[in-house]
Amino acid sequence: MKKVIWSLVVGGVLLVAGAFLLGRYVWPNTVLADLPKPELSDGQRGQLGIDKNVNESTIDKYLGRPDAVYRDMRMLKDPGNYEAIGGDSYLSGFVNGFEVVPLPYIVNVTGLPEQVGDTYVGKTLFTNNNGVYTPNYKESMEILEALFPKDKVIFLMCGGGGYSGMMKNMLVALGWDADKIYDVGGYWYYDGANKVEVKRVNSDGKTVYDFYKVPYHDINLYTLTENK
User: Fold this and answer.
1) Which of 65, 96, 165, 212 has the highest CB neighbour count under 10 A?
2) What is the DSSP string of the chain?
3) Domain map (residue ranges) of the chain
4) Architecture in CATH for domain 33-223
5) Mean of pLDDT values over 186-194
6) 33-82 per-position pLDDT tens digit
7) pLDDT value at 16 more than 50
């Protein structure tokens, strides 16, 4: 009987220790960095909503967290002329661990730089009218909660930082916890070790985009039930 009790005690200790390690480490044995409270950057980056501490230059420290989801808000090919501001209208690459959820399919885009022109102007899950977000489909909120779980830390990224800031503003307005959402900024300024290149020049000298590499969440608006 003593051996059985001792085995149960040892097993319990190992179970608790395992749970602690699982919550603290990710494969391969990388210690998870403590997350600072979200804080806006100074100047124009802060106006876009980009975080001061968790951003393009530091995001590598916060990848692979089991308590988080990672969302890149760009389209594969954006109708906007982002080349006019030094970016790429195509999704030229992404940070490993991020999954693409195109913001222009979630909500109408406003406030882009004049040089960019118009982005996608078709159907969207929600309509933003001066900060009031109205669902256009019966499934809109269900889809939003599935893609951006409220019980997870959410890291948002895009090309230059605008789309991710818009996404955070929307989530907070709809009841998400602002202290669990980080606007990481723009992939165009990322130079870390977890870059996945999508854009390349092929053997014929042509620029091509290997979109098969991109973990992409399709939002098929034509299968949903419209609110009337």
Assistant:
1) 165
2) -HHHHHHHHHHHHHHHHHHHHHHHEETTTEEPPPPPPP-BPSHHHHHHT-BSSSSTTTGGGGTT-TTEEEEE---SB-SS-GGGGTS-SB--EEETT-EE--HHHHB------GGG-----S--SEEEETTEEEESBTTHHHHHHHHS-TTSEEEEEESSSHHHHHHHHHHHHTT--GGGEEEEEEGGG--STTEEE-EEE-TTS-EEE-GGGS-B----GGGS-B--
3) 1-31, 33-223
4) 3-Layer(aba) Sandwich (3.40)
5) 95
6) 789 999 999 988 888 889 999 999 999 999 999 999 999 999 999 999 99
7) no
